[in-house]
Amino acid sequence: MSVGPWQLIIIAIVILVLFGRGRISEMMGDFGKGIKSFKQGMADEATPQAPAPRIENQPAESTETKQADNSTSSN
């Protein structure tokens, strides 16, 4: 069962009568904005981003080292 051009025209007329011309153009405008936003998001994702700065782990001072520093500085 194929849909011919006359069936498509009848369907288009029914949709136009139900929604009205202004509502259809508003929906198509929203649809176009959505596509534009999607393309922009895909373009932003495709651009290479700089890697986050790397933070080097430094060994923490042991409590023995801190105590030794405190005893030598108090003399």
What can you tell me about this protein's structure?
By secondary structure, this protein is an all-alpha fold. 69% of the residues lie in helices and 0% in strands. The chain contains 3 helices and no strands. The chain has helices spanning 5-19, 21-46, 63-73. The chain is rod-shaped, with a radius of gyration of 34 Å. The N and C termini lie far apart (101 Å). The mean pLDDT is 78.
Q: Quick summary of this structure?
A:
The chain is mostly helical and 75 residues long. The protein has 3 helices and no strands.
Short descriptors:
rod-shaped; mainly alpha; 3 helices
Identify low-pLDDT runs: none
Task: Output the radius of gyration.
Answer: 34 Å
Separation of the first and last Cα atoms: 101 Å
What would you call the shape?
rod-shaped
Mean pLDDT: 78
Q: Please summarize the sheet with the most strands.
A: none
Helix content: 55-70%
Q: Note the run of SSEs as H and E.
A: HHH
Task: Please tally the β strands and state the result.
Answer: 0
**Percentage of residues in strands:** under 5%
- Label the structural class: mainly alpha
Q: Number of DSSP helices?
A: 3
